[in-house]
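Hi V.,

Quick status before I head out on leave. The structure for the redesign project is tokenized and pasted below; the design run finished overnight.
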């Protein structure tokens, strides 16, 4: 009976966790891991809890592109990721991009260094009765590529920071994926607020170390830089 109970608990934990396995572009979902680098949690669905880990960048199962292809999309278009099975925890949704350096391509670059700029951040709706999180329950999350960024190859990163057990350091659970993009069109504005992963966050950041239940927070500050805008 103990073995059965342990197995059921494990299954329940896996079902409560999630991955971002497929790119969404041009209004359609692609196949799992077709344009997204396969993540370490592709079977376990488990999160990253150490913000100083190299896994906090793209949560990759192995180095390299792992067979992922690069999707061509237009600047200003809507892109995103599917959530499998859905985003089952309350928390913050953010998207980042990083421009691939000259002489490299999206399928060969590891995204190291202070190269990432934030393009979207979604925290909670705050009310005296408690916090509600727009991304909770979502099966797909999307944002727009800034129309002003230069054309070229980019890595596109999603993170969802689940905060249901974030009342102690290391309790926040982050779910991450990176896709490979070639952006066409665009402009000439250089993104600002560049950060590195790992390095951008600390475990004690107020948007990561927080009790979201009691006392009910009256404000929330997402970790990382300000959202880059055109």
């Amino acid at each position: 009976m103990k073995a059965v109970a342990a197995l059921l608990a494990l299954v329940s934990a896996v079902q409560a966790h999630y991955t971002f396995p497929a790119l969404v572009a041009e209004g359609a979902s692609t196949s799992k891991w077709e344009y997204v680098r396969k993540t370490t949690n592709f079977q376990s669905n488990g999160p990253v809890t150490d913000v100083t880990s190299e896994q906090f960048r793209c949560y990759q199962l192995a180095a390299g592109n792992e067979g992922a292809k690069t999707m061509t999309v237009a600047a200003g278009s809507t892109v995103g990721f599917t959530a499998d099975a859905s985003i089952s925890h309350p928390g913050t949704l953010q998207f980042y991009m990083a421009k691939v350096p000259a002489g490299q391509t999206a399928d060969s670059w590891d995204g190291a260094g202070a190269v990432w700029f934030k393009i979207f951040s979604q925290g909670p709706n705050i009310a005296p009765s408690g916090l509600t999180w727009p991304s909770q329950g979502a099966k797909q999350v999307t944002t727009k590529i800034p129309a002003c960024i230069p054309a070229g190859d980019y890595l596109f990163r999603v993170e969802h920071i689940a905060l249901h057990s974030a009342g102690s350091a290391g309790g926040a659970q982050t779910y991450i994926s990176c896709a490979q993009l070639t952006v066409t069109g665009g402009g000439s504005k250089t993104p600002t607020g560049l950060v590195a992963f790992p390095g951008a966050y600390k475990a004690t950041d107020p948007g990561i170390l927080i009790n979201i239940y009691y006392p009910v927070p009256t404000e929330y500050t997402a970790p990382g830089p300000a959202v880059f805008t055109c």
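Above is the designed sequence. The longest strand covers residues 173-184.

G. will cover questions while I'm gone.

Best,
W.
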